[in-house]
Fold Sodium/hydrogen exchanger.
Amino acid sequence: MMGLGLGDPPADYGSIMAVGLFVALMCICIIVGHLLEENRWMNESTTALLLGLGAGTVILFASSGKNSRLMVFSEDLFFIYLLPPIIFNAGFQVKKKQFFRNFMTITLFAVVGTLISFSIISLGAMGLVSRLNIGALELGDYLALGAIFSATDSVCTLQVLSQDETPFLYSLVFGEGVVNDATSVVLFNAIQNFDLGNFSSLKFLQFIGNFLYLFGASTFLGVSSGLLSAYVIKKLYFGRHSTDREVAIMMLMAYLSYMLAELLDLSGILTVFFCGIVMSHYTWHNVTESSRVTTKHAFATLSFISETFLFLYVGMDALDIEKWKIVSETYSPMKSIALSSIILALVLVARAAFVFPLSYLSNLTKKTPGEKISVRQQVIIWWAGLMRGAVSIALAYNKFAKSGHTQLPSNAIMITSTIIIVLFSTIVFGLLTKPLIRLLIPARHLTREVSALSEPSSPKSFLEQLTVNGPETDVENSVSIRRPTSLRMLLASPTRSVHHYWRKFDNAFMRPMFGGRGFVPFVPGSPTESSLPLLAHGSEN
């Protein structure tokens, strides 16, 4: 950000003006996004990106071509302040049953698929980009390109897919996007720290071991942080004195999980995502009713503001005159276009190379047609994962720039090509995603589901629903079905049977200790006190 020296009046005035303009742009973006809500083409991410580009153009002309942005792109700002609330809210709001029912497919796409995509892009870049003679690129640079462009834009996916209309597709594409981002970042960091000069089979196995350790440890830290918050809030029950405290402790412990992961060199993205899932399953049900509504909207609002800020930020940074001047003075326009086209083509091919084969493998394990991924759904999964976003830009800056600046032409053209691909994929692919979904999946086939975290119409209806239905009521619990033997059920439908045994373990051991649905705190003497003993008793069953 521009200088924030409080003792320097001119710098202070400049920073206030910059922040003020940025906030005004965010307000405009929200208003325009609201007006275009029903538009079949536009979405809020594309709107924010276009507004950022427009604002950058105005600033560029106003400064006579010397400056085009209010802020310099900062990895710290992106990874420490903007990304955590977006990923946490995604985990907090995700439909857990749908997500975990498709967890093996999501992991297959996000881990195996990302490795396939990384390999194809890296090998393709070595064979094709090297022929353009853009400069001295080493093996590490080509591998970094593979990791950079394997990272999909999970933020944009949130904007173009609806969790209520297409829950199956949303859980697959978004779940893959979150784990894919984590995989790409872990892969990128591993490449940066890997000694490519002394490559051996033993070091490759060590690389795989470290990769698996990062995934396991990050997930464990996220789950542990969520359980700790649930236990603390359940035992201390802050709500009897102040609902502000329990809201604050939820927010701070969620953010603490991300920072702990970064301090321990783990994946903060995976950690905060699983922390959000665990908090929505246990912690959210342990706070007072008013705190539930507050936290639900507070997390969603923070995520929304971060998303809007992020796309404005990327749009304005795209017109940074310094990088484009270095590229234009060193390379011809055709060479820059050729580089971007080659990388974009590799992204398209790499995405198709794992989505369709892995979908086929996933379908082999499914028993009923309804659980299989249809060809139309595979096309949407392929298309929705083509968008690249701020993660790719942040990794490109990390590899090819220092403190947001670069003087090497080969590094500058890599950054500008990344920006071109991000802008093209977000705007073009993003604009066409909604019409593509309507074309391949007509409106009559879209399903509407009530979110597990949807806001109650009133406090009374909220309490009535909990009282009548009891804790964790669903079709599985409300309908009496004669079950087959455990072994037969496990072999016939492993996903459903694992969910069944998890539910039994959750009700018997986890909820009595960590709370959850059915544990409803109440303020003594409040109007709802008389209706809640039944719920408190039900939580211990």
